Amino acid sequence: MESKFLFLPVIVFFTACSHLSTLEDYNSEEEYYQHITQSCSGEKVLIELQDSTKTVGYSLEIKIDSLQWLDPDNKTVIQPISNINSISHKLNTEGAVNGLLTGACIGVLVSVSAGGSDLGKGVNGTIGAIVGSIVWGIIGVKETFIINNF
User: Fold this and answer.
1) What is the DSSP string of 43-99?
2) pLDDT in tens, 74-90
3) Distance separating alpha carbons of residues 24 and 2, to the nearest angstrom
4) How many Å apart are CA 50 and CA 45, to the nearest integer?
5) Residue 55: beta bridge partners?
6) What pLDDT shows up at residue 150?
7) Which residues contact 122 (CB under 8 A, 6 or more apart)?
8) Element (H, E) at 145
9) Which of 87, 101, 91 has the alpha carbon at shortest distance from 140?
10) Taking residues 48-72, what's their average pLDDT?
11) For the chain, first and last CA: distance in Å?
């Protein structure tokens, strides 16, 4: 009977590995670009240009017509928005929360499948939650913003 819950951690794992956002998710370009700037504020970002080259940036600021960031040498880089394909960054806190939930589910399921006691389920769930939150906290969840050019 409990085997039907086996799919819960699998679903959480695969749906929580990354986020993909596009302009269609927002009411306007301004709102979308403002969200990107706020989400990436103070974060290390990976910027993919239209020619598929990738670069690392910090202190990202996106506007309707341009994207500005600091490169690893602290030099300001400005590119027209038409040259940008996508912007990605890692969400470590969200990764830790996902790991906590997934680890707890897996720990309880291991106990259930082994016929463990209620105490064993709790202990394994706790251990799984701790391990999951540490591992996923380090790995993080990737958030990618696709830049659409209209």
Assistant:
1) S-EEEEETTS-EEEEEEEEE-SSEEEEE-TTS-EEEEEGGGEEEEEEEEHHHHHHHH
2) 999 999 999 999 999 88
3) 39
4) 16
5) 47
6) 45
7) none
8) strand 141-146
9) 91
10) 91
11) 52
